[in-house]
Each structure stands twice: as C-alpha cells, then as structure tokens.
Amino acid sequence: MPLNVADLMAAVGLFLVLEGIAPFLNPSGLKRAMARLSELGERELRIAGLGSMLLGIVIIFLVR
C-alpha cells in the first residue's frame, strides 16, 4: 500500500495538535513533569519510549 503524502501530513498535524494540548492547558504541570523526566535514567526513558512506540504500532494496526 503506497504512502499517501496527505495522510502523512495529517498524521504530523495531529501529532502537533496532541503535543500542544498539555502546554496550552497546564503549562506549570508540564514544567513539573519535564523536571521529573530529567531525573530519570536513560534506561527508564528508553523503556518508556519503547512502550510508547509499541502502543502506537498496535493502535495503527487496529485502525488500519
């Protein structure tokens, strides 16, 4: 199935909208969360990143 550029741009746009929700609604809470994230080790961040990617793949698989 060929990649449609319009679908890719829609996904990027949706990503930016979702990323912007937290700083718009609760900037101080986001700052606290970022401060706590900076205290985590690389291993914990990698595991969280892997979990996020896997969840995203599952969602894409279920939707498509």
Q: Label the overall shape.
A: flat
What is the percent of helical residues?
A: over 70%
- The total count of strands amounts to 0
State mean pLDDT (0 to 100 scale): 92
Please name the defining characteristics of this protein:
single chain, 64 residues, mainly alpha, 3 helices
Structural summary, described in words:
It contains three helices and no strands. It has helices at about 5-25, 25-40, 40-64.
What are the SSEs and their pairings?
Blueprint (H helix, E strand, L loop, with lengths): L4 H21 L1 H12 L3 H22 L1
Helix pairs in contact: 1-2
Q: Nutshell version of this structure?
A:
By secondary structure, this protein is mostly helical. It is built from three helices and no strands.
